[in-house]
Amino acid sequence: MSVDAVVESVSGSAGHTFSKDVLPGIRLLAGLGVEGDAHLGATVQHRSRVAADPTRPNLRQVHLIHAELFDEVAGAGFSVGPGELGENVTTRGLDLLALSTGTVLRFGDRASVRVTGLRNPCLQIDGFSEGLLGQVVHRGEDGAVVRRAGVMGVVLTSGPVEPGMPVHVRVPEGPHVLLERV
């Protein structure tokens, strides 16, 4: 993993909106998520998951996307910026999608998140920009679904996260466990 990984941007929204507002900083709360964000909570907060079973643990407390994805989709004619796909933390210099399940990301020297899995892109992405969903989810040559809309995680350690902070990666012991949708 790159030692040059940094937080490029942070975002949040108190409402259940698709895009989130870019902010000067956010605060992560252990076991809950992003302070003031609509998805804050120990149990599921995404509307569809609350409707299915509101007692399930919230494995989607923090949404992270690599800024390189925005660069890639720009090459296909799409203009997407930080927070616009609903992420809380936009990173640069870190291949989030290649991480093992359980990887811990530490921001600066305090806040940390354990990666739980892949974001499952939904049709709302095409509502944001028609055709964008096909850029962030498709079938690979082997027929398997490839999801590229970032990763989800749970907050392990409370603390601030701000643009420019280094992102430190701690890979779990044992074999690499591919990320699955959560």
Walk me through this protein's architecture.
- This protein has helices at residues 47-52, 67-74, 124-128, 133-136; strands at 6-12, 21-23, 26-29, 33-34, 62-66, 89-92, 104-107, 111-118, 137-139, 145-147, 151-157, 159-161, 167-170.
- It has 182 residues and is α+β, with helices and mostly antiparallel strands.
- It has one domain (6-170): M1 Pyruvate Kinase, Domain 3 (Beta Barrel), CATH 2.40.33.
- The model has no long low-confidence stretch (mean pLDDT 95).
Question: How does the SSE layout of this entry go?
Answer:
Layout: E1 6-12, E2 21-23, E3 26-29, E4 33-34, H1 47-52, E5 62-66, H2 67-74, E6 89-92, E7 104-107, E8 111-118, H3 124-128, H4 133-136, E9 137-139, E10 145-147, E11 151-157, E12 159-161, E13 167-170
Distance between the termini: 23 Å
How big is the Rg?
Answer: 15 Å
Number of helices: 4
Helix content: 10-25%
Main pleated sheet: 8 strands, mixed
CATH class group: Mainly Beta
Q: Name the helix and strand elements from N-terminus to C-terminus, one letter apiece.
A: EEEEHEHEEEHHEEEEE
Q: What is the strand tally?
A: 13
From the spread of the alpha carbons, the general shape counts as globular
Q: Give the overall average pLDDT.
A: 95
